[in-house]
Design goal:
The complex is a heterodimer of chains A (about 220) and B (about 325). Chain A is built from 10 helices and no strands. Chain A is mainly α. Chain A has a single domain, classed as DhaL domain (Serine Threonine Protein Phosphatase 5, Tetratricopeptide repeat), CATH 1.25.40. In chain A, helix 9 packs antiparallel against helix 10. Chain B is built from 8 helices and 14 strands. In chain B, the strands form 3 sheets. Chain B has a 6-stranded mixed beta sheet, with helices on both faces. In chain B, helix 4 packs across helix 8 and helix 6 packs across helix 7. The chains are: A mainly alpha (about 220), B alpha/beta (about 325).
């Protein structure tokens, strides 16, 4: 694992968000103000513009570079939250990446994010996707599940989390100003997080598949 | 969507460049990171820095100058600015008195300013403005929004800082004025974020949104259009329930346009508000009418009431020289 991986992740997250732009913008207009998806896209565009720099870096440093860029380009709530996630991950970035290492790194990122946003599960935010995914990740690692199984299971957990926000009452962020009227709408941040996690898992699964084909050929 | 723009990505940059060109005697525009600062700084004075998403002009850039802000950090339209902007602004305008951040209570603004305060090595404090009574104030939630009352807070702490108040005094005063200030708004039409290209609120021809936020967020309730007197009454009743003023109290009234409402209509609301306030036994000592905290092209208005005392009134009346607020200079 290295900076190249981060660049690939940015590319696949970007492609997935572009595919879902209108849908997420609409979710956001229902209970927020509609800027969330554009902020994420602006951040990812900035990251892709510095791909050479990130690619050349070690994993931890690459995550740190990405965090600083996200912090200075995204703005809104997503900026500090995602930057905290990346910073938390960079602090625990391992040299060699076993599934257990990655689970630990991701959990550290989610914890840093939780600390910044002062929010756990149940407030109708992206944490309703990110925390259950971290918990499920740990569980799968503890059960010594294979990487393929993990990459198949995490998107399912992300989807459950995303859907769970529909009936929640928003307690944080701009949707909280709506009170009961926030119920019945999926949280746009939960949806964008789920879209990104699903895209990253698919990309990792695909690159493993390519690696296997490559091995067979050679 | 019909707006004066060239390329949507250039909207903010071109708007700020125009602003700087118009008010070059008072302000200086810095790019990368983006902030606007007062042209002439006073050594040793507490530096007042505010900021927030763009689209609320003249808030905050229009209030940079003598008697109000030292710098403002504009974010993208309706999106909080980022910590690097705030840190750079603090570097540029802190002349030894420390930095007071004035922050409207939105999760994004709060977190970005928090990170700036952590990153900046400078002595700093923050005043969190949460004057919008349309939404509940609860410690379990984000709490109340910061809206047009911010103008009053920025004006009076700006005056205190100008007259030599130190960082702690300015922070305490800002918190006190915030507690004595309450607002509520109403939308007659939606606004359209340039990047989104379509209206945020889906308001019918004969509908209004009572308690709307300054980003077109839904408010307390959707209603059929009502007479101006009834609208003013509903807004003020919500405000007064919150402020609980004693009979005979002196108040400051701000009738704020949200961007698309003509002044003539704002004065109709102002007239209604004056009658309602004096009917409640309150003395309207000062009134300000105009577009000060807008929501792009939204038609609508907000009313803000601030409970005055001798100190607040003195700092409200003191000289101010900014692009959007100017008197007694």
């Amino acid at each position: 694992m290295n900076g190249k991986l981060i660049v690939d992740c940015c590319d696949s997250a970007y492609a997935a968000l572009i595919r879902h732009t209108d849908e997420i913008a609409e979710l956001d207009q229902q209970i927020g103000d509609g800027d969330h998806i554009y902020n994420l896209i602006r951040g990812l565009e900035a990251l892709r513009a510095m791909r050479a720099q990130i690619e050349a870096a070690e994993l931890g440093q690459a995550l740190q570079l990405a965090a600083a860029k996200v912090l200075s380009t995204v703005g809104g709530s997503s900026g500090p939250l995602l930057a905290s996630l990346l910073m938390g991950m960079s602090r625990t970035a391992p040299r060699e990446c076993t599934a257990a290492d990655v689970a630990k790194m991701y959990a550290a990122g989610v914890e840093a994010m939780q600390h910044r946003g002062k929010t756990g599960k149940g407030s109708k935010t992206m944490m309703d996707v990110l925390i259950p995914v971290a918990e499920r990740f740990h569980e799968l690692v503890d059960r010594e599940s294979g990487v393929d199984e993990i990459l198949c299971e995490l998107p399912k957990e992300a989807e459950r989390g995303m859907l769970s926000t529909r009936e929640m009452l928003a307690l944080k962020g701009r949707a909280s100003f709506l009170g009961e009227r926030s119920q019945g709408h999926i949280d746009p941040g939960a949806r964008s997080s789920q879209v990104i996690i699903t895209a990253l898992c698919a990309q990792l699964a695909e690159s493993r598949e390519r690696g296997r084909c490559h091995e067979e050929i050679s | 969507m019909k707006k004066f723009l060239n390329v949507v990505e250039d909207f903010l940059g071109e708007s700020l460049a125009g602003f700087a060109a118009a008010h070059g005697d008072l302000v200086v525009l810095h790019t990368d990171p983006l902030f606007i600062r007062r042209r002439n700084l006073r050594p040793g004075k507490v530096a007042l820095i505010s900021g927030g998403g763009s689209g609320h002009e003249p808030l905050h850039t229009g209030f940079i100058g003598h008697g109000m802000l030292d710098a403002a950090c504009p974010g993208q339209v309706f999106t909080s600015p980022t910590p690097d902007q705030m840190v750079a602004a603090a570097e540029a305008v802190d002349t030894g008195g420390g930095v007071l951040f004035v922050v409207k209570n939105y999760s994004g603004d709060v977190m970005n300013f928090e990170m700036a305060a952590e990153i900046s090595g400078r002595k700093n404090a923050a005043v969190l403005v949460n004057d919008d009574v349309a939404v509940d104030d609860s410690s379990f939630t984000t709490g109340r929004r910061g809206v047009a009352g911010t103008v009053i807070v920025e004006k009076v702490i700006g005056s205190l800082a100008e007259s030599g108040g130190d960082l702690e005094a300015c922070k305490i005063f800002g918190d006190r004025v915030t507690k004595r200030t309450a607002s509520m708004g109403v939308a007659l039409t939606s606004c359209t974020v340039p990047q989104a290209g379509r209206p945020t609120l889906n308001l019918g021809e004969d509908e209004l949104e009572m308690g709307v936020g300054i980003h077109g967020e839904a408010g307390r309730r959707r209603s059929r259009m009502m007479p101006a007197d009834s609208i003013a009454a509903e807004l003020l009743d919500a405000i007064l329930v919150n402020l609980k003023p004693r009979k005979g109290s002196d108040v400051l009234l701000l009738v704020n346009g949200l961007g698309g409402t003509p002044l003539a209509e704002l004065y109709v609301l102002c007239n209604a508000a004056h009658h309602r306030l004096s009917g409640n036994g309150l003395q309207v000592q000062r009134t300000l009418v105009g577009n000060f905290t807008t929501s792009l092209e939204m038609a609508g208005a907000s009313l803000t009431v601030c409970l005055l005392d001798e100190e607040i009134l003195r700092h409200w009346d003191s000289p101010v020289n900014t692009p959007a607020l100017r008197w007694r200079i």
